[in-house]
Specification:
Distance between the termini: 36 Å
Helix content: under 10%
Radius of gyration: 14 Å
Strand order of the largest sheet: 1-9-8
Number of domains: 1
Largest sheet: 3 strands, antiparallel
Bound molecules: FE2/S2 (inorganic) cluster
Shape: globular
Number of strands: 9
Length: about 120
């Protein structure tokens, strides 16, 4: 039996998250593809849409840069909002009490995928 991999859902390889534990990705076609990022914490992968609940900006200014220097929190570099890695909940900043939009992902064969059945176009 052969299996097919839906390459349209591949976010990155797990080893891409070895040295730097977070990574931006874009999935989908058209003028507004899904823009997100993943953060690895131990064996767990957390994924969020790259849009801050404060003003809707992307969180990062530099590629793949989403964490505080001590890597304990996600930071939005526009106005400094801080979010828990495990939940996306904003613990400090102009959108305190709001949350990042979580994205369902799964790990298969050493790669991180957008979860099966999730269409990037649903996030336009
Ligand atoms: S857009 Fe993220 S803190 Fe303002």
């Amino acid at each position: 039996m052969t299996s097919t991999i839906d390459t349209g859902r591949v976010i990155c390889a797990l080893h891409d998250l070895a040295e730097r534990p977070c990574r931006a990705f874009t999935l989908g076609a058209g003028p507004w593809p899904l823009s997100g990022f993943v953060v690895r914490r131990g064996d767990t992968i957390h994924a969020y849409r790259n849009r801050c609940p404060h003003a809707g900006h992307p969180l990062n200014l530099k590629p793949h840069d989403f964490l505080t220097p001590d890597r304990s929190l996600i930071v939005c570099f526009s106005h400094g909002a801080l979010f828990e890695i495990a939940t996306g909940y904003c613990v400090d900043g102009p959108c305190a009490g709001q949350s990042l939009e979580a994205l369902p992902v799964e790990v298969i064969g050493g790669h991180v995928f957008l979860a099966e059945g999730v269409d990037p176009a649903d996030y336009e």
